[in-house]
């Protein structure tokens, strides 16, 4: 059932329906400004030069990662280790997923967001793990400022779910989710080896065969005052690894050495980042990095993030072999992935980073 829609008065006298999509708002010619409910003020620590040419996220050649040459693989594993330690983000090129499939997935999601609002209402839900859900912002019931963003989230693994509209979405999303999961699986093997573990160690420990994969499409329409709104505020991802593609409009920024760096992805590349579950597993060796989505006043940006996590009933805990090797005590307590996701979506997860809730408190 669709959420109940009520109206609230905007600061200029226009009514902004509560729960209305940002697309509806952006398409309205009467709105030439950002309504007060969407006005986002950056904290001092969110400022920074996001276009510093000296900063660029590392590039990992997937063809070398899957190479039969031990020397080539060993070299790229070390590059992967440095990328995880120093950035938490990297690009993956030569991954074998056809660019036309990636573009078809973006186009299919665009067609979904272009559907009439009445047709999308059947997919609106507030249940966190419903197989298919769409909506706007993040959580309009608990957030102080609404986000300049609509979303569509579809669970693609361990069971594949899809939409019957728009036409062609189901076929494209099935192929895209399969190919993306294959890439994520190889990246997970590489990360495992970069930690000095067996290639399948993390996959086995996290029950990867039953792991959660979500196709999360984000729609950020052009904003009349982009400096006064935000697509997604600074956050970390909840899973193990996330793969992302976007249309020609950039907007992803990564926090690196206290500066916000705009990610300029190579054509056809996946942007990959490690998530909170990986930070727990590695006891902070590989960190889940803060990132955000900014908006522009030129054109719509569409991104498709594909987070991959453990099975829902699996708790992440620091890997014993790493603790022993580093002579460390575990920094985190255990929590199942499902409970962790629920925490992230709760008021407690908004007030304080989820990882802080799980940190071992030392006297």
Could you walk me through the main structural features you see in this protein, from its secondary elements to its overall organization?
This protein has 363 residues and is α+β, with helices and mostly antiparallel strands. It has a single domain (43-358), classed as Sandwich (Jelly Rolls). It has twelve helices and 14 strands. The protein has helices at 22-27, 62-65, 70-86, 99-113, 117-120, 169-194, 201-205, 276-281, 320-326, 337-344, 347-351, 354-358, and strands spanning 7-9, 15-17, 59-61, 89-93, 132-136, 150-157, 213-220, 232-235, 241-246, 252-256, 259-262, 270-274, 291-293, 301-308. The chain has an eight-stranded mixed β-sheet. Strands 8-13-10-11 form a four-stranded antiparallel β-sheet, with no helix packed on it. The protein has a two-stranded antiparallel ribbon with strand order 1-2. A hairpin with a 5-residue loop joins strand 1 and strand 2. It starts with 6 loop residues before the first strand and ends in a 5-residue tail after the last helix. The model is unreliable at 1-13 (pLDDT under 50).
Per-chain topology:
Layout lengths: L6 E3 L5 E3 L4 H6 L31 E3 H4 L4 H17 L2 E5 L5 H15 L3 H4 L11 E5 L13 E8 L11 H26 L6 H5 L7 E8 L11 E4 L5 E6 L5 E5 L2 E4 L7 E5 L1 H6 L9 E3 L7 E8 L11 H7 L10 H8 L2 H5 L2 H5 L5
Parallel strand pairs: 3-4
Antiparallel strand pairs: 1-2, 4-12, 5-6, 6-7, 7-14, 8-13, 9-12, 9-14, 10-11, 10-13
Helix pairs in contact: 3-6, 4-6
């Amino acid at each position: 059932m669709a959420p109940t829609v009520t109206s609230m008065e905007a600061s200029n006298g226009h009514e902004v329906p509560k729960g209305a999509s940002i697309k509806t708002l952006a398409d309205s010619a009467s709105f030439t400004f950002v309504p007060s409910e969407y006005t986002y003020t950056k904290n001092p620590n969110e400022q920074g030069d996001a276009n510093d040419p000296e900063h660029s996220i590392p590039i990992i050649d997937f063809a070398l990662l899957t190479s039969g040459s031990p020397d080539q693989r060993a070299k790229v594993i070390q590059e992967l280790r440095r990328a995880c330690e120093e950035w938490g983000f990297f690009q993956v090129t030569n991954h074998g997923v056809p660019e036309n499939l990636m573009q078809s997935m973006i186009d299919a999601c665009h067609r979904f967001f272009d559907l009439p609002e009445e047709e999308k209402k059947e997919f609106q839900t507030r249940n966190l793990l419903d197989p298919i859900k769409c909506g706007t912002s993040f959580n309009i019931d608990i957030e102080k400022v609404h986000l300049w963003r609509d979303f569509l989230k579809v669970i693609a693994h361990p069971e594949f779910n899809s939409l019957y509209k728009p036409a062609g979405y189901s076929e494209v999303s099935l192929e895209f989710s399969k190919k993306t999961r294959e890439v994520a699986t190889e990246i997970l093997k590489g990360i495992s080896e970069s930690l000095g573990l067996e290639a399948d160690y993390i996959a086995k420990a996290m029950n990867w065969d039953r792991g959660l994969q979500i196709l999360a499409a984000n729609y950020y329409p052009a904003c009349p005052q982009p400096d006064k709104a935000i697509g997604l505020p600074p956050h970390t991802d909840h899973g193990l690894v996330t793969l992302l593609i976007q249309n020609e409009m950039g907007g992803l920024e990564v926090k690196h050495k206290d500066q916000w760096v705009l990610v300029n992805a190579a054509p056809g590349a996946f942007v990959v980042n490690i998530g909170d579950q990986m930070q727990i597993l590695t006891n902070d060796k590989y960190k889940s990095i803060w990132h955000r989505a900014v908006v522009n006043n030129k054109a719509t940006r569409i991104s498709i993030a594909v987070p991959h996590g453990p099975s829902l009933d699996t708790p992440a805990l620091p890997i014993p072999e790493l603790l022993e090797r580093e002579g460390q005590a575990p920094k985190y307590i255990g929590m199942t992935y499902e409970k962790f996701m629920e925490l992230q979506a709760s008021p407690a997860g908004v007030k304080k980073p989820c990882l802080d809730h799980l940190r071992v408190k030392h006297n």
